[in-house]
Amino acid sequence: MRSLAELELKLELTKPEMQRIGTDPALEALTVGKPETSLLRSLYFDTPDHRLRAQGISLRLRSSGERSWVQTIKATNGASDGIFDRRELETTLATPEPDLEAIGDRRLRRKIARVSRTSSLEPLFETVVRRTIRKLHAEKGDLELAFDEGVVRAGKDEGELCEAELELKAGSPACLLEVATKLFASGSLRLARMSKADRGYNLLLGRQDQSIVPRRALQPTLKGDESSAEALALFVQSANAQMVANRSVVLETDDPDGAHQLCIGLRRLRSALQAFRRLDDSSVLREIDRHAGELARAVDRLDDADMLIEDIFAAVAGRMKGDAGFAELRESLAAHRVKVRDEVRQKLLGGLWSKLQLYVALWSRIFAENSSLRTPVRDFAPLALSKGWKKLARLGSAADRLSIDERRALRKALKKFRYTVECFASLHAEREVAGFIKELKKLRDVLRPSNEAATAQQLTSIARETRPASLEAQRAAGYVVGWHDAHGAQRTSTVSKAWRRLEKRSRFWN
Predict the structure, then answer these.
(1) Is 366's pLDDT higher than 80?
(2) pLDDT digits (tens, 9 = 90+) for 197-207
(3) How many CA atoms lie within 13 A of 322 on its CB side?
(4) What phi and psi values does residue 58 have, to the nearest 5 degrees?
(5) Do the domain assignments include residue 221?
(6) What's the CATH code of the domain at 301?
(7) C-beta separation of 456 from 312 below 8 A
(8) 3-class secondary structure, 398
(9) 76-85 burial, b if ≥16 CB within 10 A, otherwise e?
(10) What is the C-alpha to C-alpha distance for residues 235 and 430, in angstroms, rounded to an integer?
(11) Do 58 and 182 belong together in one domain?
């Protein structure tokens, strides 16, 4: 019986991607010895009603063409952003039949026996893969890279498998991050959210991928006894789930809400990181923030391109029906949006997104022992909120004197602080937090005309770039800009009143 603690990064690949990585000079430089290739057949056992799976247990028998079989028990809570962190128990058997008595961990053996006592363990599905393994050595540790290419079968149904698994054998999780970045970050990276067992169950149950739709924020709930490291991990995972879902929307649809929700996910991620910077100002967290910031600026341009058509242009165009210049300006804005969308898609398919995903997936393992992040989140939250409020108050206290561009900056700071408030909201009385957030949103809405006026400034340059010979389109752009300038400037007193209402609200975190 062999017991292992497994820390593994799993990626979904296409065949060309697998070939590219397999011939990368960086991989050759890390490889020790010659690659080994074998054909693996794996049978996955469970009760007919899937009781083992319900307990987070996988029972597999695997053969590599030899007479013996290896029984593997994996106890896991599933994958988190492509990371599989689990216990693994292995035993060699003579026949392809599970042997519970051979499980050395008595507690796990009894648990499996108990859940399967009134049922039978049956082979539900199998995988057949051609596996190529490379032993890797880096400065900070030893790893194993496996390329798997094959199929998963459940009855008459069959699905393709094409994956890479990078497993840390010795050393720190930082080694896994460094090697993964060297090997995978140059291309479009897709972290696997499912194990082979998950794929088999989905095939068995006839489950298809859900349709690609925009995903809104799902804020995690804190109990209060978490460490700051645990709380930050929850915030990062929540923001990243929103980012990953909406990246797919942006890549595969023209739904404007996808870009908007991706922007929110990136802002939520950055707000969480910056809130905890007082405890951990490490290079890794700064790298995550830097990558997220660069992506956010790109996606913001697409969000702005949508807003230019659907809010800024539309607000004025209805008053100018039949004007040829407005029709031409609408075509210019549509062409601009197509161009920006293509640029953003290239950004989301490139190495910047891949690096961000690798850092997000692995940072919590790297800093699991960081003593500065052991501070109870209940104790840290008031400090983070007080600091965020002071930054916001510096802008808000001059609300009646701000230019349109400065009001736009205030609106951005307002949203950033709201995301911070929402992070820690579950630690405080719901009624107090809800009232405070309500005032934040009211001020945000009051500042919306100023934000639109600042964004509208792009119209003139877009019209000149896309229709340089059309004076009508440029005239229409100037008219829209002027309308929004006037509309935004009329709200000075309203902004001041909304700020004062927010300022009078009790600081619930105190």
Answers:
(1) no
(2) 888 988 888 76
(3) 0
(4) -120, 130
(5) no
(6) 1.40.20.10
(7) yes
(8) coil
(9) beebbbbbbb
(10) 19
(11) yes
Please report the sign of the dihedral spanned by the C-alpha atoms of residue 411, residue 413, residue 419, residue 422: negative
State the total domains in the chain: 2
pLDDT > 70 in the chain, percent: 94
Return all residues near 139 (Cβ < 8 A) that are at least 6 apart.
Answer: 175
* Residue among 149, 197, 193, 209 nearest 22 (CA): 149
pLDDT tens per residue across span 15-57: 999 999 999 999 999 999 999 999 999 999 998 888 898 888 9
Q: Which two tokens stand for residue 217?
A: 């924020």
Please answer whether residues 196 and 127 qualify as being in contact, where contact means their C-beta atoms are separated by less than 8 angstroms.
yes
Q: Does residue 201 sit in the same domain as residue 232?
A: no
3-class DSSP state of 277: coil
Q: How many residues does the chain have?
A: 510
Helices (H) and strands (E) in the chain, counts: 19, 8
Are 253 and 261 within 8 A, CB to CB? no
Token readout for 280 is 């951990």
| Residues 430, 489 within the same domain | yes
Backbone angles phi, psi at 51, to 5 degrees: -70, -35
User: Which tens digits make up the pLDDT trace of 60-76?
Assistant: 999 987 778 999 998 76
The answer to whether residue 51 sits within a structural domain is yes
Displacement of CA 225 from its chain's centroid (Å):
25
Q: Name the residue type at position 444.
A: R
* Tokens found for residue 154: 């459940």
Amino acid at 399: A
The token duo for 244 is 């990953």
> What whole-number distance in Å separates Cα of residue 174 and Cα of residue 308?
43
pLDDT (tens digit per residue) in 124-172: 999 999 999 999 999 989 999 999 999 999 988 999 999 999 999 999 8
Nearest alpha carbon to residue 131 among 178, 180, 185, 196: 196
Which residues span the domain enclosing 130?
A: 2-205
Which amino acid, one-letter code, is at 294? E
> Quick one: 250 and 385 in the same domain?
yes
Q: Is the dihedral of CA 288, 244, 307, 295 positive or negative?
A: positive
* Token reading at 290: 């830097």
Q: How far apart are CA 304 and CA 330, in angstroms?
A: 15
Query: Who's near 506: CB < 8 A, 6+ residues apart?
Result: 432, 436
CA–CA distance from 290 to each of 113, 262, 342 (Å)?
A: 50, 16, 22
Question: Based on the domain organization, do 234 and 179 belong to the same domain?
Answer: no
From residue 246, give the alpha-carbon distance in Å to each of 47, 105, 263, 299, 396: 36, 42, 9, 11, 32
The four Cα atoms 364, 368, 370, 375 give a dihedral, to 10 degrees, of 90
Q: Give the strand pairing for 57-63 and 2-12.
A: unpaired
Candidates 295, 317, 10, 283; CA nearest to 146 is 10
Measured in degrees and rounded to the nearest 5, phi and psi for residue 357 equal -65, -40
Instruction: Find residue 159's DSSP bridge partners.
Output: 152
> Which 3 state secondary structure label does DSSP give 58?
strand
